[in-house]
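QA checklist item 7 of 12: single-chain prediction sanity check.
[x] sequence parsed
[x] length recorded as 449
[x] structure emitted
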Amino acid sequence: MRNLIPMLISSVIFFTLVSCDAESITQPPERPPETESEFTYGGTNDDLGKILLRTEDGGYLIVGTTTSSDGLFNGLARGNRDVFALKLNANRNQQWVRTYGGSNSEWAMDVIQDSQGNFVITGYSRSNDDQFANQNRGENDIFLIKIGPDGSLIWTRQYGGSNEDYGFAVTEGPNGGYVIAGSTRSVDGNFSNRSNLSKDIFVMLTDFNGQPNWIRTYGGSNNDEALDVVVGPNSQIAVTGFYESFDNDFSGRQPGESGAFLLKMDPSGLLSDIYTYSGSGAEIGKSLTATSDNGFAIAGRTTSNDGLFQNQRRGDTDAFLLKTNSFGNIQWLNVVGGSNFDELNSIIETDNSRLIAVGDTRSSDEDFDGLSFGGQDLFMVDFSLNGTLNRLSTYGGSADETAQSVVEIPGGNIGFTGWTQSNDGDFSGPPKVSRDIYMLLTSPDGAVQ
């Protein structure tokens, strides 16, 4: 296969309980071959895969956002934009699909399967009816949606104030419950302790019933957002994202246009430390994983060619992956890219201690020389824990696609999801009207399965 190019990229050191009824459900028929490519899913409007889980029963769950009311989502539409959950068995055959939300717009951003076997989805919502009846506080609100293993709705919760509030990531808390991370502009409701209208990072711990135990906000006078959260060594809660502030919690930390950060808290929400990583351009930490050596790895994008990213720039926007020790200090940094736009959206550590990250690229030169299919392609990088690049692979067709989430599958296979508009290459099939969800599975050597 054309996508295996070993290369070493230089490393540098450096609420209110609402009982919700009547959720939509179908047991979809087999997809006719003339309407969908194999392992792509959707309708005639935009359908975007955001998160892929390997489920306890050996299957998969894809969660994302849909605007379709036909195809996979025939009879399931609720509003302008709905959250969906698509359950697949181990062979990627559909078991069930459901939608959640109200008559306005909902965006799904993250999902986990908790220790009780249920699925918990976070994101943000503008609806105040249907499954979010009388919960909206104004503008976008953070939500949790808790569903059973069969997709049946258990409850929904909204959190926020009268301004914009966004839930971007969720994980189970170190002692149970759910940790949500994101950003807020509100100064009332759940965020009445705030006074400025720029975005602040928030981290919230709820119990298993979605009731808040504590809420913390961090930031300064500019916009600061949390985009991912994990529980790391010693039950630390760790968050990444981007910061634009250089005062208050980011006092003395010059972000350039924006900087990436690693924020660590103890299980009670007490701030341990904030580590920042930036040049004079814009850095965004999009995904975070705790590593087996008690450190962390952050994947994202950068536009800097100075500071931490001195002499590493390849184009307009490059993908980066950095590895820290347990204290948040950089052990190594790698940049991947070409002359166009490249970013990483999701990162995991595999059972054999490899860091796998996925994202999208518009480049056809530099690190992606000879790898472009046309348009925007999805790509996967495989690093050792010491920073050695083992493999860079691209996948796609002549139109656009992106990879938003990656999981490891027993046997060393890797699965990822996102969206595609292609009907050729790795997504061969009938022409697509708009963006469709996909699930792609690759072997340990990167070949599509």
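[x] summary fact logged: The mean pLDDT is 92.
[ ] second reviewer sign-off
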